[in-house]
Write a sequence for this structure.
């Protein structure tokens, strides 16, 4: 036996055996908290499935897919190139995550590229900080589950502070001459197939569907919000019709296919006005089917959307199960006592915000799982300020990605970046918690 | 002997590109060596920022997307 190679599995097996041998089954069985945690996590999963998947996540995947296919990423990257205007580069870097960073695995190569071949350290750091926070799925999910204030605060906080962090990094290391990278940026040629305003209207139609289908019941029975709520399905149908029209006019879908698809949706909506979900699901299925059969561009749109769904849904589900088991549904307890949460990150003190930032900076969150975890923490008594701090520091940094960043820009700059992220996230949390907490 | 390099930090799309390129190269019957480049420094050394990317004999052919099978065929033959 080769001990050098085999000691690891041996250690695992011995460890596993010892654990099983002394497993305190009787004690665990008597633990009410443990049983509770199982039910809590099941309730939470059901709640997600009922409330968030159909009306929110499914349209969001279509939007994210459309961003991936129809927004020319190359046309954005030219503002982050080596000869780019420096001031403009910061602005573009801070917001371009919204369309460049739909998948978290693309952020690090883009960051490395901007740093070594493009606009340099400052814009690269700005991009790295804001990217994960403002990508389209993150914004939609945060606003939907954690509430619009936190959703908006997350996006605005990420953009503003990313510029500050970028500038600080630039000033701190302004004397360092970067080894010139011999490679030129290899950028795909931007393919322009339709004017920008047509794309804008197309995205507006989809965002309209998403927003109005999810319009929440307002607390009062009168006023503008209530009248929008009362007719939300009419408005949603209007946006859906607009989307259909756009697809026929600008995306060369055959009109009779759209008409044929719209008919059953309309009939179902009239037949079951109490459960509009039926018409919604049928509409989505028909759209998916049509996209498969109508040309390269449309198939690609569907494929990319499906790719996101396939990648993100399982992670999110696991995240929800874990969050439910550890923290319970809002208002009840899981494995971790709410008291602990409230003590360490409750209220809006400096220490609570700092703790949330540091924990977020080192913890690894799989794509978007920060949202259910935060929901659990908020339900267990976390303050809104620390929640924002964690939302800002969390997805931007984790121990594994710090190692990659270090390999790109060295230990000193990485330490500076991590410190800046923690400071800025803490500051954003404090400010948000003071005014909206 | 062609050197085919798939550039990407190991996400789903890079894996797909790897498999597709392999299938196309096999179908073409060319002699090739296929490598995954996952180190981010090496990827940037190619000038690539948007993964997945495909390089043939050291020259970047596609970046930022998975090319269609007939495009792949063109690059690999």
């Amino acid at each position: 036996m080769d001990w050098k190679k085999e000691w690891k599995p041996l250690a695992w097996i011995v460890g596993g055996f010892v654990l099983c041998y002394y497993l305190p089954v009787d004690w665990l069985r008597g633990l009410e908290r443990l049983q509770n945690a199982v039910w809590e996590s099941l309730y939470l999963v059901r709640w997600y499935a009922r409330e968030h998947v159909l009306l929110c996540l499914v349209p969001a995947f279509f939007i994210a897919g459309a961003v991936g296919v129809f927004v020319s990423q190359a046309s954005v990257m030219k503002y982050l190139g080596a000869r780019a205007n420096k001031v403009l580069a910061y602005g573009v870097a801070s917001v371009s995550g919204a369309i460049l960073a739909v998948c978290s695995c693309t952020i690090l190569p883009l960051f490395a590229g901007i740093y070594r071949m493009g606009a340099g350290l400052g814009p690269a750091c700005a991009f790295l900080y804001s990217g994960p926070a403002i990508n389209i799925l993150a914004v939609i999910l945060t606003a939907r589950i954690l509430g619009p204030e936190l959703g908006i605060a997350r996006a605005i906080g990420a953009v503003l502070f990313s510029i500050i962090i970028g500038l600080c990094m630039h000033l701190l290391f302004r004397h360092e001459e970067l080894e010139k990278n011999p490679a030129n940026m290899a950028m795909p040629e931007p393919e322009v197939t339709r004017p920008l305003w047509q794309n804008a209207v197309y995205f507006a139609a989809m965002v309209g569907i998403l927003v109005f289908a999810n319009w929440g019941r307002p607390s009062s029975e009168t006023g503008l919000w209530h009248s929008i709520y009362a007719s939300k399905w009419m408005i949603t149908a209007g946006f859906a019709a607009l989307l259909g029209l756009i697809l026929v006019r600008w995306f060369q879908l055959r009109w009779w296919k759209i008409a044929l698809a719209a008919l059953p949706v309309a009939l179902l909506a009239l037949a079951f006005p109490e459960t509009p979900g039926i018409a919604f699901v049928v509409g989505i299925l028909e759209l998916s089917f049509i996209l498969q059969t109508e040309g390269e561009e449309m198939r690609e749109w569907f494929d990319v959307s499906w790719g996101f769904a396939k990648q993100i849904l399982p992670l999110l589900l696991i995240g929800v199960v874990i969050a439910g088991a550890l923290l319970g549904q809002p208002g009840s307890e899981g494995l971790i006592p709410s008291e602990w949460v409230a003590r360490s990150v409750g209220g809006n003190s400096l220490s609570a915000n700092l703790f949330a930032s540091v924990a977020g900076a080192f913890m690894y969150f799989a794509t978007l799982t920060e949202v259910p975890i935060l929901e659990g923490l908020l339900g267990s008594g976390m303050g809104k300020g620390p929640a924002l701090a964690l939302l800002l520091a969390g997805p931007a940094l984790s121990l594994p990605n710090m190692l990659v960043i270090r390999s790109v820009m060295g230990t000193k700059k990485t330490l500076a970046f991590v410190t800046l992220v923690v400071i800025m996230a803490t500051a954003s949390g404090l400010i948000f918690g003071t005014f909206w907490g | 002997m062609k050197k085919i390099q798939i550039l990407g930090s190991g996400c789903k799309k890079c894996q797909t590109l790897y498999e597709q390129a392999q299938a196309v190269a096999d179908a073409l019957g060319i002699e090739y060596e296929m490598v995954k480049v996952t180190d981010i420094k090496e990827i940037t050394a190619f000038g690539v920022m948007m993964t997945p990317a495909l390089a043939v004999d050291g020259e970047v052919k596609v970046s930022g997307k998975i090319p269609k099978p007939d495009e792949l065929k063109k690059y690999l033959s």
Notes: The mean pLDDT of chain B is 85.
